[in-house]
Amino acid sequence: MQPSNGTATTSLWSKVAVITDLFAFPLRTSHYLELVNPLWSTHKLQARIERVWDETKDARTITLKPGLNWRGHRAGQHVRVGIPVEGMHYTRTYTISSSAEREEQDGCFTITVKAIADGRISRHIVRNLKVGDYLPIGLPQGDFYLPDAQPVKPLFITAGSGITPARSMITSLIARERLPDSVHIHYAPHEFDMIFGQELRQLAQQYPRYTLHEVHTHALGDEQEKRRQCYFNEEQLSRLCPDWREREVYACGPPALLDAVKQLFEQAGRFRYVHTERFRAAFAEVPKDAVGGLVRFAQSDIAVQADHQTPLLRVAEDAGMNPPHGCRMGICHTCNTTLVSGCVRDLRTGKIINEAGSIVQTCVCAAAGDCELNQ
Ligand code: FES
């Protein structure tokens, strides 16, 4: 599907649907078309899994063919994906790992998911999703992408699955034959843990303008202290990328890495040249005397004990509820509910919310004593 053709097809179809909807009432034509091919429906957006590919022992790339309403992404953007698991519906957000130009070839894009130890959904995606499954998806979103006016010299700093937007950007630049002098520093425990390792090493050999530095954080040993020596720091940065003060930074990875990058560039007066993409919200340190409490979900008539740091969204899901949610990091507000009584803490700021009727973003708030939510 060429994006331009896809847009034309969608617009033509919209005009036809105005007429055919009269005969389909009380449903819409799109509901009947969905029965023939879910990708033809226009009242909701779905994607079919075309291929699954294991990148490492715990990371899998999934190729998705989106439906008619899809619009092309910009390299670096993310997409929301609905995951049905045992009768529950979950939503997760993943960066699109393929280039924007890939969609112009076969109408598909990819997401690359790493199974994390306590991530039941990521483990389900990596182990159980199969070719032919249909998943509800959102439209591409996010402002973590290269500007149209090309950055002079990008410096990509990534770790773990944070490599996905960088891979999308680098392969997009190559596909457009606009690859500038680019340096990429990537952190992975071992060489074999690096997602897209083989591909990016080959690109680095093929394109002298793309320099890849791999930092293997377990190279000196598995102990925390030895690993710490391999973490991002100024000496290491200056050694791997001596001209870092002249570059525009695109960083994606765990909060500790992003905080360290921001701090260093802030000290160097280069803060405005740093662009970061987070997979989860940055949480403030929880006070030592913080306590959880009994959380009551009023509409569901469910009450469960919760600790002081587990987001209430997770508490609700663990209690068997299926509350609305999207980004799970405090951006989209899909998870908003109101406080009926009691006290919760915003984990990002540490701020206590205790006024009845206040909005509570359940994905970034935890119990701070007993509380009742209008959910
Ligand atoms: S799920 Fe997006 S703000 Fe909570």
UniProtKB/TrEMBL annotation:
<dbReference type="InterPro" id="IPR001041">
    <property type="entry name" value="2Fe-2S_ferredoxin-type"/>
</dbReference>
<dbReference type="Pfam" id="PF00111">
    <property type="entry name" value="Fer2"/>
</dbReference>
<dbReference type="InterPro" id="IPR001709">
    <property type="entry name" value="Flavoprot_Pyr_Nucl_cyt_Rdtase"/>
</dbReference>
<dbReference type="Pfam" id="PF00970">
    <property type="entry name" value="FAD_binding_6"/>
</dbReference>
<keyword id="KW-0560">Oxidoreductase</keyword>
<feature type="domain" description="FAD-binding FR-type">
    <location>
        <begin position="42"/>
        <end position="147"/>
    </location>
</feature>
<comment type="similarity">
    <text>In the N-terminal section; belongs to the FAD-binding oxidoreductase type 6 family.</text>
</comment>
<keyword id="KW-0285">Flavoprotein</keyword>
<dbReference type="InterPro" id="IPR036010">
    <property type="entry name" value="2Fe-2S_ferredoxin-like_sf"/>
</dbReference>
<keyword id="KW-0001">2Fe-2S</keyword>
<dbReference type="InterPro" id="IPR008333">
    <property type="entry name" value="Cbr1-like_FAD-bd_dom"/>
</dbReference>
<dbReference type="InterPro" id="IPR039261">
    <property type="entry name" value="FNR_nucleotide-bd"/>
</dbReference>
<keyword id="KW-0479">Metal-binding</keyword>
<dbReference type="InterPro" id="IPR017938">
    <property type="entry name" value="Riboflavin_synthase-like_b-brl"/>
</dbReference>
<protein>
    <submittedName>
        <fullName>Ferredoxin reductase</fullName>
    </submittedName>
</protein>
<keyword id="KW-0274">FAD</keyword>
<dbReference type="InterPro" id="IPR001433">
    <property type="entry name" value="OxRdtase_FAD/NAD-bd"/>
</dbReference>
<dbReference type="InterPro" id="IPR012675">
    <property type="entry name" value="Beta-grasp_dom_sf"/>
</dbReference>
<keyword id="KW-0411">Iron-sulfur</keyword>
<dbReference type="InterPro" id="IPR050415">
    <property type="entry name" value="MRET"/>
</dbReference>
<keyword id="KW-0408">Iron</keyword>
<dbReference type="InterPro" id="IPR017927">
    <property type="entry name" value="FAD-bd_FR_type"/>
</dbReference>
<dbReference type="Pfam" id="PF00175">
    <property type="entry name" value="NAD_binding_1"/>
</dbReference>
